[in-house]
Predict the structure.
Amino acid sequence: MACFDTISFLTDYGTTDEFVGVVHSVIRQVAPDVRVIDISHHVPAHDVRAGGLTLARSAQYLAPGVVLAVVDPGVATSRRAVAIEVGDGASVLVGPDNGLLAPAVSMVGGATRAVELTNLDYQLPAPGPTFAGRDIFGPAAAHLCNGVDLLELGAEVDVNGLMPGMIPITRVEDGAVVAEVLWTDGFGNLQLNVDPVEIEDFGPRVELRFDGKVRTGVRHTTYADVPTGEIGLVVDSYGLVSIAANRTSAADELRIGTGDEVVLAAIGDEPARAGTITPVTLQEKP
Amino acid sequence: MACFDTISFLTDYGTTDEFVGVVHSVIRQVAPDVRVIDISHHVPAHDVRAGGLTLARSAQYLAPGVVLAVVDPGVATSRRAVAIEVGDGASVLVGPDNGLLAPAVSMVGGATRAVELTNLDYQLPAPGPTFAGRDIFGPAAAHLCNGVDLLELGAEVDVNGLMPGMIPITRVEDGAVVAEVLWTDGFGNLQLNVDPVEIEDFGPRVELRFDGKVRTGVRHTTYADVPTGEIGLVVDSYGLVSIAANRTSAADELRIGTGDEVVLAAIGDEPARAGTITPVTLQEKP
Amino acid sequence: MACFDTISFLTDYGTTDEFVGVVHSVIRQVAPDVRVIDISHHVPAHDVRAGGLTLARSAQYLAPGVVLAVVDPGVATSRRAVAIEVGDGASVLVGPDNGLLAPAVSMVGGATRAVELTNLDYQLPAPGPTFAGRDIFGPAAAHLCNGVDLLELGAEVDVNGLMPGMIPITRVEDGAVVAEVLWTDGFGNLQLNVDPVEIEDFGPRVELRFDGKVRTGVRHTTYADVPTGEIGLVVDSYGLVSIAANRTSAADELRIGTGDEVVLAAIGDEPARAGTITPVTLQEKP
């Protein structure tokens, strides 16, 4: 019988409404001694990919136990509510089966078992069908902490049938790395889906192409090393390449954000541009 | 001697300033083992009605114990600071006597006893008169958890003399239900003060009149069932009728919000409009 | 061997990203029984002074234990990571040595010992150099709670060599008090660096000069006592003079904010203006 003492909790509920507090209250009554740690409740509304990436970034640092994650634009439709066991029971992730949990599940080694949350004995009766965090997911997380067996919560489902996550991967074109902004953090740093080894051959200065513009990114070890006015490339605290400016927002500076494409290339390495004689004019958006 | 182990905490303090953390710290020192669950601290500043409705929506889900609520535009004036017992001691609500607590008190069966928080032995000495959450309400909540008797906190007051809450009720005019938006949630759904039975006779398509416009709302079971571009009427997770759009904000779409009037009627049921021959032109705001 | 059971936690991380939750998770795994109380995570990005003032306002109300504070524009540069003991071990403040901790340290009597956090045994291995809260400061706070000796965390440093904080003090010019807005709270009240005794001689009505304008501030005991349309001067809950408007934002009303200068003087006391015959015209910004 597994017993967990921590629930890590992520949603797109925001904290203006009472949703988060109500789920905490429901958990408190089912499993009084469990600690609930809020990871974030400010995932952009309905943004399953952003929520999945946030969980994946957090995954290796979370306390073993239950991960309760709800970003659920299809609430109360045919999308399944699931609990996914990882590490042969080391932790369980609870949430909608819409790809939200998939990146984190991958990060920690993949699913070992999963169930659909169909057993009404472990749910709250709902006055309406739309608050699954309160009525289905929260209670499931709390009951798991109390030692209720995973298979008690509902019918087992094939882990290979779970909705996969969609994490963009880079591709190489003409020697350049075509990347994407995975995440714009609160400081305006732009995390790319780029491992430092992918740009090792480009040297300390890297050409950045985005939104019709070309800029030079300079590799630095820390954000504070980036001189004012320069665009830095820093390996961030997750081990990925990020675009950064010193004490200001690179996102505001470059006017790009999550989901935008960025091409990284060796300086002067682009055949087409090598033959031109006019200098590149940076077209700033109005 | 009642002992409580949970304080449910709601304010309009926001979380940018240290107010919420300081109240948590004060409680921690008076009653170290109590769990404090934050319901919301983003009630609009001084909006007693919004705070009261948030508490009322939460009430039935809160852990038994103390509810600490502070939305208090009249802080340090003649408005009383009170503790209101409900359920013959099952829980106690602590806050200003300005109507904030009243809807939640009603939801759980009404007040059984109440005191004004006048006993300085259970308050912090204040360098200024304006932070009642830290100096008066927070300590009162914590001492109640420690088993201090309600009547120790101050003089008993008549529960019938407590400030009532003001929850708008619908009225019927010419067969139409004149309603009001009680709450715009973070997803832009518009909760009305309308029980589903009130619009049962209108059928699946209901005329909505607001702000000089007329739209058709279509009843659906879930938010995700609402087709793109359509205005849905969904019974929300609190059992009330709400206006919703699929994966977008109905509030932004219709340009209405909390406190605005919405009239619900049977389609084609309005006598005045039946005689007109020109179609209704929707006047969009610029 | 000191053992602490509470960590008071302040950052400029915001709560949109997972940073705060990840630090909570790291602490949970090192010191499972410690309570972490969030003071604020919405200090303006990189604003060391604002963070330091927030801590100083909170200091006397915090539970004894560890204060974990991270506002750290120079992360991973030569600025030191430190732990500062106060009250001969009553509490320890952990964070960057950039002046952030200094005002709070002063408030509680000054530092008794300090170390630089150099011992890697009490840090997490980092995939990148930039998340010191997760990898250095959070673990240090948790290990201190577990009873690890301060001197185990790194080399002792001279407490007189710690970076001082910069709190502006008032000056008197021609009998007027030249002050500064220390803090604009979420309600729009403007806290000045002015002790009530400094303006005692000015009487109940005080001339306020700021941004080329002159207004009269009227002293009141509570915010709610300020009549609509009037500018009030209220001793706030920290014992400092603040500019306030009743149920509205004084900051919006006067169009000033944190860091702006405000001169307080006796009405009609300014020599230059005494000789003029034209009335002061208030120039409103467009």
Chain C touches chain A at residues 13-22, 24-26, 28-29, 32, 45-46, 73-77, 126-131, 134-135 (CB under 8 Å). The first strand of chain C starts at residue 6 and ends at 11. The CA atoms of residues 197 and 241 of chain C lie 10 Å apart. The first helix of chain C runs from residue 19 to 30.
